[in-house]
Amino acid sequence: MKKQIVLLLVILGITSAFSQEDNRPLNTGNDFSLEGALELFKNSNSLEEFEKNLNDQKNNINNLDLNGDGDIDYINVEDIKENDTHIIVMSTYLDETEKQDIAIITLEKTGNDKAVLQIEGDEDLFAKNTIVEPQAKEKGAVQNLKTESNIAVIENPTVVNVWFWPSVQFLYGPRYSVWISPYRWRTYPGWWRPWRPVAYPVFYGYGLRYRPYYRPVAFRRVVVARGIYYPRRHSSTFVIHNHRGTTIIRQGRRGGVRDGRR
After folding, report:
1. Fewest CB within 10 A of the end CB: N or C in the chain?
2. What's the pTM value of the predicted model, to 2 decimals?
3. For 231-248, what is each residue's pLDDT tens digit?
4. What is the pLDDT of residues 76-103, one digit of tens each?
5. Cβ neighbours of residue 259 under 8 Å, at least 6 residues apart?
6. What are the tens digits of pLDDT across the range 101-158?
7. How do beta strands 99-111 and 114-121 pair?
8. Alpha-carbon gap, residue 211 to 34, rounded angstroms
9. Beta strands 153-154 and 160-161: pairing type?
């Protein structure tokens, strides 16, 4: 009888281990919805509003806990602007000094009343060259729209003109001043309250509503963005990304080793 009980406990332990493994994303960055971030960006009237929307729990965009403290990470938004190109950087502080980029939105004005954009996950967190963009069946889009509106214009089957998105109009407006989030480690807006991460299958389900209107692609449309962004990219010195969604915090400035496996 004792042997049967021991065997049952071993089986339950193995089953539990596999269950925990399956509840983690293949890549750590999959706990952040690129499609959802684009949808929020599309409908935001400013970068300040975009940052607030990213950090609103009800939007179900973010499930990241990169420093392993058990709470969702606050996402900072910063704009890098050069001529007609904007790189909107989404990042998080892991402590007082360590900062990790999560994703960037690359945006470029390509002509009168024309602009293109994509979002790309950071290579420390996502699979290499994880790039997403609006697709032709984007919600509310119409063919060859001639009048101004807040929806995208599809001018051919593959490229979505995002010029009329409210966020894009804001960034190219005459009164726009480059936005850099004022918030830092443990200095957050008064309205924000962190929450606990959920199991990845649950989080994946939250993002289903965003996916029909965006698609992964294997190429970058804003070719100058990479050269502008990379000298300013933030990559933490103590986050190690392992395949299968394990983020380990190794020894940092304050000492100690923390394992952030979920």
Report:
1. N
2. 0.80
3. 999 998 766 554 554 454
4. 999 999 999 999 999 999 999 899 999 9
5. 68, 248, 249
6. 999 999 999 999 999 999 999 999 999 999 999 997 655 443 333 334 444 444 445 8
7. antiparallel
8. 9
9. antiparallel
65 vs 226: CA distance, rounded Å: 26
> What's the one-letter identity of residue 165?
W
What tokens does 128 get?
């290499």
Taking only the tens place, the pLDDT of each residue in 163-201 is 999 999 999 999 999 999 999 999 999 999 999 999 999
Q: How far apart are CA 257 and CA 259, in angstroms?
A: 7
Three-state secondary structure of the chain: CHHHHHHHHHHHHHHHHHHHHHCCCCCHHHHECHHHHHHHHHCCCCHHHHHHHHCCHHHCCECCCCCCCCCCCCCEEEEEEECCEEEEEEEEECCCCCEEEEEEEEEEEEECCEEEEEEEECCCCCCCCCEEEECCCCCCCEECCCCCCCCCEECCCCCEECCCCHHHHHHCCCCCCCCECCCECCECCCCCCCCCCCCHHHHHHHHHHCHHHEEEECCCCCCCHHHHHHHHCCCCCCEEEECCCEEEECCCCCCCCEECCC
Structure tokens at 18: 């596999």
- Nearest CA to 25 among 148, 204, 174, 192? 204
- The Cα–Cα gap between 89 and 151 comes to 23
Q: Which tokens go with 187?
A: 């200095």
Helix axes of 47-54 and 34-42: crossing angle, nearest 10 degrees: 140
